[in-house]
Design brief:
The structure is a homodimer of 206-residue chains.
Chain A (H helix, E strand, L loop, with lengths): L11 H25 L2 H8 L3 H7 L3 H21 L7 H18 L1 H12 L6 H24 L8 H17 L1 H7 L6 H17 L2
Helix pairs in contact in A: 1-2, 1-4, 1-6, 4-7, 5-8, 5-10, 6-8
Chain A binds a DNA duplex (30 and 30 nucleotides) through helix 1 and helix 3.
Chain lengths: 206, 206
DNA sequence: CCCCATTTTGACCAAATGGTCAGGATCAGG
DNA sequence: CCTGATCCTGACCATTTGGTCAAAATGGGG
């Protein structure tokens, strides 16, 4: 009890290796989806043997579940920050910018999520029908309030949110396609940000 | 030579069964991705035994390849129809409407494509870097021409095309999420069409 | 209804996959 | 530097998977 089981219930090695494994698993799962990925692949990517990996996680499923559960929360953060008290147009534009930043900085997470949804969300449907749904309801109401007050142009708040998601996540999820079409363009994201700023500015102007 | 090998080089049964198989494979591949799908799954969905399926197609890969190659072409059709001679705003809006219709009528095809791209487009990268890239270049030039003529508001033509793709395909690829958030809403697509019409109208107005 | 081409099947195979286990290597506190 | 806990490995196992094959069933033109 003295040497092991520190405050976290884990040793230093456990913390390090678990992080390594999750990092590798993110690489693999985000590219091949759950069923298309193998424990061996993940183990190799993490620099471990398969039995060694299974010493840290009980199963393939457990790794995937841990990744997803950690993801959902941070994924919703940019939307949570949407503040009813702020300036409507600026609030929405900030949300778009934050979301685009996440596509740029965490494309693997975006693809992991996309894979899960496309395949019918077998593992996170509850979270979508719960947390996400509630959050959407809350923020839709705020946006509707802005519209009713004549502070932004009228539109469907829920579809506005869908538009924000699809426009921003596209750059991460379909990165290969984007790059194939603008190969020389190093600065995809700055241009994308400009474009989306233009788009939403025009769209929201009364 | 008399009884078999009609004009198509295939018998009636071959034509029927191959169609059945492709139909079933579309169901399965679009949901689980290539690596996540099994021949047995497809065979069962098509009402055949595995060896019987393999009598009609030489391998799992061949089925997938045939689906994808057939897809690429029809996928680009709506963009091909974009006509430099037409009214700019109406041309773009028609393109959006056609693309949204495809999401509504062929969601499995959309997801098959999305799966392929997310996973790095291992099988259709050439087509993307070829046909698609050329078509984008061509249509971007047309749009740029409209902008230069002051007929639509200025914006980045390539990113405009990305926006059209992402906004419309989202309703097919993330259908589960959309439905989870608007479960009561039977009329997702009519509303989506209205929303996108509003969005692009505002965006393109000088 | 005969006969050959076409279609279908069950049995089979090698490789891959998720997971287990006993024992050996290593680490760190005393 | 000893000792028990932690960490790691090779060997192993059952199941799944992509694919083959010989032989049986079926079909349809003559």
């Amino acid at each position: 009890m003295t040497k092991s089981a520190d405050k976290n219930g884990k040793t230093r090695i456990q913390r390090e290796k678990r992080k390594q494994i999750l990092e590798a698993a993110l690489d693999v799962f985000s590219q091949f989806g759950y069923r298309g990925s193998t424990i061996d692949q993940i183990a190799k990517a993490a620099g471990l043997s398969k039995p060694n990996l299974l010493y840290y996680f009980p199963s393939k499923d457990a790794i995937h579940a841990e990744l997803l559960s950690g993801l959902m929360d941070s994924w919703l953060d940019p939307m949570r920050a949407l503040n009813a008290e702020g300036d409507p147009k600026e609030e929405i534009l900030s949300y778009v910018r934050r979301k685009l930043q996440m596509s740029r900085d965490f494309p693997r997470e975006s693809r992991l999520f996309a894979n899960e949804i496309i395949q019918g969300a077998p593992r996170i449907l509850p979270a979508i029908e719960g947390e996400l749904r509630d959050l959407v309801a809350e923020k839709s109401a705020i946006i509707q309030g802005w519209i009713d007050a004549g502070r932004i142009a009228p539109l469907d708040p829920q579809h506005l949110l869908f538009s924000i998601w699809s426009l921003t996540q596209h750059y991460a999820d379909f990165e290969v396609q984007v790059r194939a079409i603008m190969p020389s363009e190093e600065r995809v994201y700055p241009r994308a940000e400009e474009h989306l700023e233009t788009l939403f500015t025009r769209m929201l102007s009364v």
